[in-house]
Write a structure and sequence with these properties.
By secondary structure, this protein is α+β, with helices and mostly antiparallel strands. Among the domains are: 69 residues, no CATH class; 131 residues, no CATH class; 130 residues, no CATH class; 42 residues, no CATH class; 95 residues; 91 residues, GMP Synthetase, Chain A, domain 3 (2-Layer Sandwich); 98 residues, no CATH class. Helix content is 15%, strand content 36%. The protein contains 13 helices and 64 strands. Strands 6, 7, 8, 35, 38, 39, 42 and 43 form an 8-stranded antiparallel beta sheet that branches. An 8-stranded antiparallel beta sheet has the order 13-14-10-18-32-22-26-25, with no helix packed on it. A 6-stranded antiparallel beta sheet has the order 54-3-4-45-1-55, with no helix packed on it. A hairpin with a 4-residue loop joins strand 11 and strand 12. Helix 9 packs across helix 10. The longest helix is centred in the N-terminal third of the chain and has 34 residues. It is elongated. It starts with 12 loop residues before the first helix and ends with a strand. The relative contact order is 0.11. This is Putative baseplate assembly protein. It comes from Corallococcus llansteffanensis.
């Protein structure tokens, strides 16, 4: 707030003239009688007396103005005497990042390379130091958190700031079992059971099951035991093979429950597996085809497996590509057959096809299909064969001997001899003649025709089943991004103990051109810090940069420009020649790692972006060896810089003879000083000549106007005479508010180079300010004089924080019980209702304060932003007719948001400073301006308070507005 002026006489020239006329009317009534009545400012040019009075009034006003300004002039002179001067403009600063063209090698970018704004070619930024831009193409970024068993894919951080929090994804821990025999099921099985044996086998560790396509499976677990776990699935089927770990098979995978984390700290309770077995039980299946010799038999409707007239070597063929592929399975054929009693014994030969018919050892519970029952056997290898035009896997039952009946035909009943005996009696011995006659005429009374007598087996239905128990052919684990065969532990924590950021670079150019060089990275950190964001203690260990050498991670040499990751800055890494590419996160890249310190393995800096090839740039142009003028040897030498304003850091030199200090001859008297050779001597800028002696090479500089003033030979040395013997060996011109440019707008390289593809500022340029005004000097000057550029008390720290930069509008300092000192500042951003400090302002203010604080305090000093405290307001009001309560509440909230703006708003133009008190009466007065409100009946603050003091780094902001409408009555 500006200091109120000292007013000795507040009258204007018109006021003095009117007073003179009133006195004339009293002391010179005859003269005044000629003036018209009722005209207090009457004036006539033909009246010499009135002209004299008018001139007297004008002279009085002029003298009064000078006298009124005299106290202020003396006050400013007093401040100037003690060196409390107007601060010059400041230049905006920003890192510029260079992107090389494809195929380019390392490119040297010299200091003072100029880049212009795309909107204004005259707005120039210059790099402040050299840079070797390297073809380091950052293509991937990850954050690994072993303690939480999660990772985050943060490739969005590459090349640009990303203010969003990384999304944590649980690390993969998967046990995959592969087997075509067990898990390739074209028809849903009745039950699939998987049994694990080992230790620490609990359901939560094996909760999520999927097939090879990722389809979830719902297991039914056996009663939980420590050493055995069985998961059973019904109606399981899988017809498509998939790949796991580069191997193709039919897979089932299992993962822990979502809330289970696999961490090194839990190593003793992680599951261990010594054996795995799986059992498949199929449902009752139909055969693909059945044949009687070459004739198809549809057993879904019932049929004769050997036909209706079975004969030896007739065969019953059964086909099933699926069932008969289960080598080693217990296969059962369930026959529903009609019970029969064959007239003769039957033996069936059961055979399977494997490059020929092979004997099949079966347990026949049907007694050669003479009744219902089961035929069971262990499935041997069966190859595909084409039988009766159908390709499948085949088995058959062949009638090896015996049969199911006799064919019809003539059969011998009795011979002729027995017939003759029946006719002539058995006691007649001479029958030969009769037998000869019958035989001669082919008469034989012992034959007769017998019809067919078959009893063929009839099968009403046939169902195939199998049950297979064996160890899966493949057992693979995936932990994180690594696939490996199962040995003992299905789930293993990642080997790293500390959380870490991983940055992956395209390996070809990186390994060819970056190894053996220094890589610069712009590390973007959160740009704001509030009073609640306490940075880590200075004694805390820093995160570690490292690279992979082919077998282990090794630490890198680092130049850290981030103040241990508390502010955005440039980090320079010396990339060693032993670095190599390596697989990580499923990609083979050249990886750099930034890991948390061992003593705090979860504390990682909150990166918001990583950009290669940055270099600091400033809004200004560097000029060198410019002649400013000539010295006269006398007082009053005033020169002017040709380009204005002049930023801090200039070097002014005078060409003069270098004095040689007096020397003493051993054992004798000192010799007189003599003049040395002429050379350029650097002089020193001071804020005042008040404490300069005649031999001090001091000068004053008004940075805004560029005016350079030397001493008079009494207070400050006068420059010696000479022609053009005063020069600015280097200075930078520019700065001001115009240098504060948005991100991605500084893109015009003034001298194009084919090997450079682009240049830009990924961050907005900040820090540009204009020169101090006299009002600012009047306000802050006494505080600066009291502090005397040294920070001792809390008030001194607050004053010096305001002095450090024109960007600081408010400041306060307070100490915590642990001895740490906090300086809270509010940046000068009037358009922002809740200004927050940027990391570059924190760095600027902190560096300024530490240079002026006792060393015991400097190490514990932290610069933070304000902590905005929501102020809840309860309002009782009478509204104008027709006004809606909800709309009025919105208007009140919007007005209070402006009212509580720290740099001033409606109803409180002065703004809010640290340590102020919010009064309900002030809030009520502000709310009276809300349209639609007739009367404010009362206002209370949170908890019914009439006032609320702000302590520490608190500043007010609008909270919840509760409106109670008084309808009268």
């Amino acid at each position: 707030m500006p200091r109120p002026p000292y007013i000795l006489d507040a009258r204007t020239s018109d006021d003095v003239y009117a007073d003179a006329l009133r006195l004339a009317k009293v002391y010179l009534p005859q003269w005044a009688g000629f003036w018209p009545a009722g005209s207090p400012q009457y004036f006539a040019t033909d009246d010499p007396g009135l002209v004299v009075l008018k001139l007297l009034a004008q002279l009085h006003s002029t003298l009064g103005t000078q006298l009124n300004r005299a106290p202020d002039k003396h006050f400013l002179t007093f401040l100037d005497f003690f060196g409390v001067e107007l601060r010059g403009p400041q230049a905006a600063r920003v890192p510029l990042t260079f992107t090389l063209a494809d195929g380019s090698g390392p490119v040297e970018i010299p200091p003072n390379t100029q880049v212009a704004s795309e909107a204004d070619a005259n707005l120039l930024f210059e790099t402040t130091r050299p840079l070797v831009a390297l073809p380091a193409r950052l293509v991937a970024g990850y954050m690994l958190a072993p303690a939480a068993d999660t990772y985050s894919e943060v490739t969005s951080l590459v090349g640009s700031p990303d203010t969003g929090a990384p999304v944590a994804t649980p690390l993969a821990h998967v046990l995959s079992l592969g087997s075509a025999t067990l898990f390739q099921q074209s028809t849903p099985v009745e039950e699939l059971s998987i049994t694990l044996q080992g230790v620490n086998l609990f359901q939560a560790d094996f909760a999520r099951w999927t097939d090879g396509a990722g389809t979830p499976l719902r297991p039914r677990f056996s009663p939980e035991r420590y050493d055995t776990l069985t998961a059973s699935f019904t109606s399981f089927s899988q017809t498509t093979a998939s790949q796991v770990g580069g191997q193709t098979s039919f897979w089932i995978s299992v993962r822990p429950s979502e809330d289970v984390r696999i961490r090194s700290a839990d190593a003793e309770i992680l599951p261990q597996i010594s054996n795995i077995s799986a059992t498949v039980r199929s449902p009752r299946l139909q055969a693909e085809a059945t044949y009687t010799n070459g004739t198809a038999v549809d057993l879904t409707k019932g049929g004769y497996p050997f036909g209706q007239m079975p004969a030896v070597e007739d065969a019953f063929y059964i086909a099933s590509t699926d069932v008969f592929s289960r080598v080693g399975a217990a296969i059962s054929l369930d026959f529903e057959a009609t019970s029969i009693s064959p007239p003769t014994p039957v033996r069936l030969a059961w055979e399977s096809w494997d490059d020929g018919w092979q004997p099949l050892d079966v347990l026949d519970g049907t007694d050669a299909l003479t009744h219902s029952g089961r035929v069971s056997f262990t499935c041997p290898p069966m190859s595909l064969a084409t039988i009766n035009g159908r390709t499948s896997r085949w088995m058959r039952a062949r009638i090896a001997s015996g049969g199911y009946g006799l064919p019809g035909g003539i059969v011998v009943v009795k011979s002729a001899q027995y017939v003759v005996d029946d006719l002539i009696g058995p006691y007649v011995t001479d029958k030969g003649e009769v037998l000869d006659i019958l035989q001669e005429h082919d008469l034989n009374f012992g034959y007769e025709y017998q019809p067919p007598s078959y009893v063929p087996p009839y099968v009403a239905s046939l169902r195939l089943r199998y049950e297979l128990t064996e160890r899966p052919e493949l057992a693979l684990t995936r932990n994180g991004f690594t696939d490996a065969p199962l040995e003992l532990l299905p789930y293993q924590p990642v080997p790293e103990q500390e959380s870490a950021w991983y940055l992956g670079f395209a390996p070809e150019d990186f390994l060819a051109h970056v190894r053996g060089r220094t890589l610069s990275l712009l590390v973007l950190l959160p740009t704001t810090r509030s009073g609640t964001d306490v940075p880590p203690a200075a004694s805390a260990a820093a995160p570690t940069w490292s690279a992979f050498d082919g077998s282990t991670w090794r630490a890198l040499k680092v130049q850290d420009g981030t103040n241990v990751f508390t502010t955005t800055g440039i980090v320079k890494l010396e990339i060693p020649s032993w670095m190599t590419s390596s697989p990580a996160f499923g990609q083979v890249l050249a990886w750099l790692r930034l890991s948390a310190p061992e003593d705090d393995p979860t504390r990682l800096p909150p990166l918001q972006g990583i950009v290669p090839n940055p270099v600091d740039a400033v809004n200004g142009v560097l000029w060198t060896h410019e002649v400013l003028g000539s010295g006269t040897g006398g007082p009053g030498v005033t020169l002017e810089f040709p380009r204005k304003p002049v930023l801090e850091g200039q070097t002014v030199q005078v060409f003069e003879q270098t004095p040689i200090a007096p020397q003493t001859v051993p054992g004798g008297q000192p010799l007189a000083a003599v003049a040395g050779p002429r050379t350029w001597v650097t002089w020193t800028e001071v804020s005042s000549f008040s404490f300069s002696s005649a031999t001090d090479r001091h000068y004053l500089l008004d940075h805004a106007s560029g005016m350079l003033t030397f001493g008079d030979g009494v207070r400050g040395m006068a420059p010696p005479p000479g022609e053009n013997n005063i020069q600015a060996s280097q200075y930078r011109s520019g700065g001001g508010l115009g240098g504060n440019q948005p991100a991605l707008t500084l893109t015009q390289l003034q001298r194009a180079r084919p090997e450079i593809d682009s240049v830009t500022n990924v961050l907005p340029s900040r820090g540009g300010t204009g020169a101090d005004t006299l009002d600012a000097l009047r306000t802050l000057g006494p505080r600066r004089l009291k502090a005397r550029d040294r920070a001792v008390s809390a008030g001194d720290f607050a004053t010096l924080a305001l002095t450090s930069s024109q960007r600081v509008a408010r400041a306060t300092a307070y100490a915590e019980l642990d001895g740490r000192l906090f300086v809270a500042v509010v940046p000068r951003e009037p358009a922002d209702l809740q200004p927050t400090v940027s990391s570059d302002l924190v760095e600027e203010v902190g560096e300024y304060l530490r240079a002026r604080a006792p060393f015991v305090v400097a190490d514990t000093l932290d610069v933070v932003g304000p902590e905005y405290v929501p102020i809840d307001v309860f309002v009782r009001a009478v509204l104008e007719p027709g006004e809606q309560e909800a709309l009025i509440r919105e208007r009140m909230t919007a007005l209070l948001a402006l009212f509580f703006a720290p740099l001033g708003g409606p109803g409180h133009e002065a703004g809010w400073d640290f340590g102020a008190t919010v009064h309900a009466a002030d809030v009520a007065q502000a709310l009276e301006a809300v349209p639609g409100v007739m009367v404010i009946d009362g206002v209370t603050l949170a908890g019914g308070l009439a006032s609320l003091p702000l302590v520490r780094a608190w500043l007010p902001t609008v909270g919840t507005v509760t409106l109670e409408v008084n309808h009268g009555g």
